[in-house]
């Protein structure tokens, strides 16, 4: 299982890490993507029908793939039980959506740490090699687990500096779609207020010394959002990759058949 050093060691001297989003609940698809050489693969529980059993199998698929790809799980919510059950599966990192205050961020950190630093319950699970490395796991888990929180509302932007400064928060993630909707500017990526909001979050992360990342689903978005000076980028979503490649193959085949090429 991955120890999470890449995601944990993001700093200004590190080139941006590039990952991709996995929402298709199939280990074969995840193993294929992880084997392409991405720095990390983000498994999405928030907007998918994945069970914990499925997530566990997807994490095994990441580890089975050749290379050094790490695993990140975007959990469905910040509930301590959700985080505990997810962390027991052994991902390198977790991303918690819809965090709007420093208090919420502190609760996330507490839920991810074992006592006395937190309140994560200990179980015999994959993260501890099914109990065979229990003592070592308890000693190292608090530092090994990478904790990211998602900034995706106007309220979260207002509190970004306080959120990023919470001890134990390793990074923030700008959710561009939900943030633009929250601001009443859905998809208006060049809107001045949206750009200012993103800049505020990036500055807050820099001031706190933590990582900042975001999502991009097209070539244009990747260029624009890497220019935000992010530390990690989710460069697309599996279903979008599949749809766009399939559509391009269909269009090309019909063009050849019709004599257009």
Automatic annotation (TrEMBL):
The keyword Cell inner membrane does not apply. Transmembrane segments: none annotated. Residues 19-243 form the HpcH/HpaI aldolase/citrate lyase domain. GO terms for molecular function: lyase activity; metal ion binding. It comes from the Archaea. Keywords: Lyase, Metal-binding. InterPro entries: Aldolase/citrate-lyase_domain, HpcH-HpaI_aldolase, Pyrv/PenolPyrv_kinase-like_dom, Pyrv_kinase-like_dom_sf. Pfam families: HpcH_HpaI. Belongs to the HpcH/HpaI aldolase family. PANTHER family: 2-KETO-3-DEOXY-L-RHAMNONATE ALDOLASE (PTHR30502), PHOSPHOENOLPYRUVATE CARBOXYLASE FAMILY PROTEIN (PTHR30502:SF0). This is HpcH/HpaI aldolase/citrate lyase family protein. The lineage of its organism: Archaea, Methanobacteriati, Methanobacteriota, Stenosarchaea group, Halobacteria.
């Amino acid at each position: 299982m991955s120890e999470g050093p890449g995601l944990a060691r993001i700093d200004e001297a590190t080139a941006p890490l590039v990952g991709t989003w996995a929402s298709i609940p199939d280990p074969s698809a995840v193993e294929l993507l992880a084997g392409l050489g991405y720095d990390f693969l983000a498994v999405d529980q928030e907007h998918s029908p994945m069970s914990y059993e499925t997530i566990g199998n997807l994490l095994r698929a990441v580890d089975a793939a050749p290379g050094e790809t790490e695993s990140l799980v975007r959990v469905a919510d910040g509930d301590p039980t959700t985080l505990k059950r997810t962390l027991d599966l052994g991902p390198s990192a977790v991303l918690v959506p819809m965090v709007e205050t420093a208090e919420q961020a502190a609760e996330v950190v507490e839920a991810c740490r074992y006592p006395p630093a937190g309140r994560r319950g200990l179980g015999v699970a994959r993260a501890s090699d099914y109990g065979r490395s229990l003592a070592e796991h308890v000693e190292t888990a608090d530092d090994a687990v990478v904790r990211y929180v998602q900034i995706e509302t106007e309220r979260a932007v207002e509190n970004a500096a306080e959120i990023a400064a919470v001890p134990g928060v390793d990074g923030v993630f700008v959710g561009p779609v939900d943030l633009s909707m929250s601001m009443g500017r859905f998809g208006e990526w060049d809107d001045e207020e949206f750009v200012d909001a993103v800049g505020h979050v990036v500055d807050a992360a820099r001031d706190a010394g933590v990582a900042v990342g975001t999502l991009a689903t097209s070539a244009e978005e990747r260029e624009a959002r890497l220019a935000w000076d992010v530390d990690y980028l989710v460069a697309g979503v599996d279903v979008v990759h599949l749809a766009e490649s399939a559509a391009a193959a269909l269009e090309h085949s019909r063009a050849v058949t019709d004599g257009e090429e």
